[in-house]
Amino acid sequence: MNARSDMIPESEPARQYFYIEKCRQWLEKKKKEKGRDLTCGIFTFGCQMNFHDSEKITAILKQIGYVNTDSEEADFVLYNTCTVRENANERVYGRLGQLKAKKKKNPDSIIALCGCMMQEEHVIDKIRESYGYVDLIFGTHNIYKFAELLYTRFVSERQIIDIWKEAGEIVEDLPTQRKYTFKTGLNIMYGCNNFCSYCIVPYVRGRERSRRPEDIITEAKRLVSDGVKEIMLLGQNVNSYGKNLKPQITFAELLKRVEEIDGIERIRFMTSHPKDLSDELIRTMKESEKICRHIHLPLQSGSSDILRKMNRHYTKEGYLTLIDKLRQAMPDISITTDIIVGFPGETDDDFRETIDVVRKVKFDSAFTFKYSKRTGTPAAAMDNQISDEVMKKRFDELLLAVQEEAYERTKRFCGQVKPVLVEEINAHDPDMVTGRLENNTVVHFNGDKSLIGQIVDVKLSECKGFYYIGEINK
Ligand code: SAH
Ligand code: SF4
Ligand code: F3S
After folding, report:
1. Best mutation site among 49, 55, 196 for ligand 3, i.e. most ligand atoms within 8 A of its Cβ?
2. What is the rounded end-to-end Cα distance, in angstroms, of the chain?
């Protein structure tokens, strides 16, 4: 190689494209030595953010020349981790333990860890101590440097750990790879400033940073020209999008700009924080042809007292008023939520308030969680932590209430004809396909793979709790 092509660009993303090429050459050599292709397996825990980050990493691995598999026997295995609740961490440690034997069988294989768990010092200490066979560890702020870190690992053959405490620049225009050709997530912001007292996300994802609207629109247009019909705008609190940009822009304004792009058929977003849900956003949703009639609006608790201790900045009544406003503007809208039981100090009366909101609102579905103590968050140091026994009792009761209401609500479209975006062949019956309504409800109906990626009118013949069995409307 001559000296010129060895000059390492300093600016991004050029630098990463340089390393992608270096990795590719290295892998080419390895493939020749082994006389076979090399495979990679990416395993993602956690939320949409992590899934989207995994898509970016997968794209880079593909450019480098790895063949993607879903097996943990792969030559390169990556766990993209989540730390929002303790059980997410435990799952990673469990699976990591099993990888040790596989590494013995295939010593050339590479094990990598990234994601939110890696931003915690005690996790890194534990991995250093007990999981010395992990090859590459990086965090949430330097994902864009993946190719460079991997190359360092390729040539040095020692354990590489690179974790940044703070976020650096937002790097645009790296390759991405989509799980589905027709729908994808698009980050509009990173990090979170809300510091809900139970939540670790602000500590592991850093401060809130919005991407520039021009960059978002450019990316959305590129996705559409690439076949994408449905875009999910992603952020921990999309309702505060744009507040730290100059000139300022609201989330509703951004939505209007995305809506103008020809070829986009469905726009979704996640997550909305109730404290920042504006009338302007409700109006924009109502007037829009493309924004899906669905909002994920985490309640967390129905007790105003607990909400204050959670640092959520709204009350039970405030939340119910928002629901009224949304339903008045869009009577058919689907509302989904997240609820935590057993926050420190939660009394039976507090819990009754949560059940009361569930009964009043009738959520289309809800993710329910037992409170999990996260080291370093204010709630972890609060008195009156709730016993496992009480937590479990409340959790079971909540789940039942949520399921009863959700079933009643889901079936409201029974007998109607609705557009369904077809996603895949049904996992259990190859003569059926599976897709989603605008409100995200799953529908199964007879069809073949030619329908994948199409939006088709389906008659919703039978409601089976949380999903429908339908038939194509001819
Ligand atoms: N940014 C989003 C949520 C991100 S985390 C929002 O503010 O709504 C996803 C969900 O995990 C949260 O809504 C909350 O219900 C749950 N969660 C977060 N921290 C938790 C903890 N310590 N214990 C249990 N559930 C938690
Ligand atoms: Fe966590 Fe609250 Fe931020 Fe959501 S808004 S990520 S729950 S701190
Ligand atoms: Fe988990 Fe990180 Fe998302 S902690 S919920 S993967 S932001």
Report:
1. 49
2. 62
Tokens of 329: 């503007």
Which tens digit of pLDDT belongs to each residue from 184-236? 999 999 999 999 999 999 999 999 999 999 999 999 999 999 999 999 999 99
Residue 446's DSSP bridge partners are 432
E strands, 139-249, in order? 160-162, 183-187, 189-190, 209-210, 230-234
Q: How far is the CA of 372 from the centre of ligand 3 (A)?
A: 14
Residue ranges for the chain with pLDDT beneath 70 = 1-6
| Atom in ligand 1 nearest the alpha carbon of residue 367 | 15
Q: Are strands 294-296 and 209-210 parallel, antiparallel or unpaired?
A: unpaired
- CA nearest 399: which of 365, 357, 373? 365
Pocket test for ligand 2, best of 82, 116, 194 (most atoms within 8 A of CB): 194
Helix and strand element counts for the chain (H, E): 13, 19
Report the distance separating Cα 392 and Cα 446, nearest Å: 40
CA of 198, closest atom in ligand 1: 22
